[in-house]
Design a protein that fits this description.
The complex is a heterodimer of chains A (162) and B (285). With 162 residues, chain A is α+β, with helices and mostly antiparallel strands. Chain A folds into two domains: 2-77, Beta-grasp domain (Ubiquitin-like (UB roll)); 87-156, [2Fe-2S]-binding domain (DNA polymerase, domain 1). Chain A has helices at residues 23-30, 87-94, 104-117, 123-129, 141-156; strands at 2-8, 11-17, 49-52, 55-58, 71-73. A five-stranded mixed β-sheet of chain A has the order 2-1-5-3-4, covered by helices on one side. Mean pLDDT of chain A is 95; it is low at 158-162. The longest helix of chain B has 19 residues, at 264-282. In chain B, α10 packs antiparallel against α11 and α11 packs antiparallel against α12. The model of chain B has no long low-confidence stretch (mean pLDDT 97). Classes of the chains: A alpha+beta (162), B alpha+beta (285). Chain A: InterPro entries: 2Fe-2S-bd (IPR002888), 2Fe-2S-bd_dom_sf (IPR036884), 2Fe-2S_ferredoxin-like_sf (IPR036010), 2Fe-2S_ferredoxin-type (IPR001041), Beta-grasp_dom_sf (IPR012675), Diverse_Oxidoreductases (IPR051452). Chain A: GO terms for molecular function: 2 iron, 2 sulfur cluster binding; metal ion binding; oxidoreductase activity.
Chain lengths: 162, 285
Amino acid sequence: MTSINVRVDGASYSDDVEPRTLLVHYLRETLGKVGTVVGCDTSNCGACTVHLDGEAVKSCTVFAVQADGSEITTIEGIAGGDGALHPVQKAFHEMHGLQCGYCTPGMIMASIDLLKENPSPSETEIREGIEGNLCRCTGYQNIVRAVQQAAGEMSGATGGQA
Amino acid sequence: MIPAPFAYERPTTVDEALQAIAAGGEDVKILAGGQSLIPVMRLRLAAPETVVDLTRVTELRGVREEGDVLVIGAMTTHHDVITDPLIAQHAPLIAEATETVADRQVRHRGTFGGALAHADPAGDLPAVALALDAEFVLAGPNGRRTVGASDFFVDYLTTALEEGELLVEIRVPKLTGSWGVRYEKFNRVAQAWSIVAVAAAVRRENGHIAEARIGLTNMGPTPLRARATEAALAGAAVTAEAIADAARSAAEGTSPSSDLNAQADYREHLAQVLTRRAVSAAAGL
């Protein structure tokens, strides 16, 4: 066992983990952060995307020990303190950027990462930005619209949300 | 699936890493970004006794200049390669090819050195390193040695790295003069490997092609240079006809495999088409 210290969604945790524990399993099974889901388990689908020190990563392809000393944000940590949805969450809701919803946590985390780097992406840039996330229901149309709406709202917003 | 248990070492310097590798037992794997190693460990295609994680070896990250050479630390992530101003200025072919690697999540973790040391013939960066005549600096228990790209890639997933050695940096000669570059990649989706890809760097002089360097991805067990095409392009006019003529020999001397994605003869066809496109774009047509 190896001891790790991490901050997840603003709270600090110290745990002993087996080195082979994948970050996604640590988040779900040790911390109960089940908002982050396991989709393909082969690094393809992106459903398990979280932010590790501010960068989107596939948490099924990172060992929990590699996150020692890091700050992690999951889908459960992006809404405001008062429960107000993050603009990207709100846009997925309003534009119906989902059907079954399984890919949604990863889609939203990848989209936030994209918008941080490119606040007003073109449609092509959005499609390339979420190329690491698979949705088997929607054909991506409403997902792209949701990201476009969120980009508009965030660039005009003064709330300063990440 | 969950990987088999392993002992975990997290050195902070190259010397510590070499000691951990030496002390790690029979089957040691070096963890760089983990975007190839963790998937194969999850499938239990690899079940190393010891994993040596280089994440905290900060001396292996970053890009610097040494005269006419760009020195890229092995642990520099794909994302950092794409956004590095020195690479943009002196080795833009590397940035262009790296942008096509997988997706943004993988590029945040995956590293330049890890992708090269993994030496997957369908990986994008080996052919680029070969086309740019890069050199590989390997650290071992008895010091450091430098290996040219043509000697580094030995066979399928096999490099000149000996047991106990570590790839520490890649030295890329700067392109000086009026070079154009292009990476042409043919694949199905972001996460799929290249079926075939072509890395081209072309130097123009007085309206002619003075020199062309062409690296082929996935046309054999190692990356290859399209030597016959390079020879045909030396001194050629910058015309669509001359480039198309030269590109017809792009698959000479290659030995592509047949698999679910493509038969060997289709890969030979792709090599010619993609070479024509890459050289044309690099030559400014």
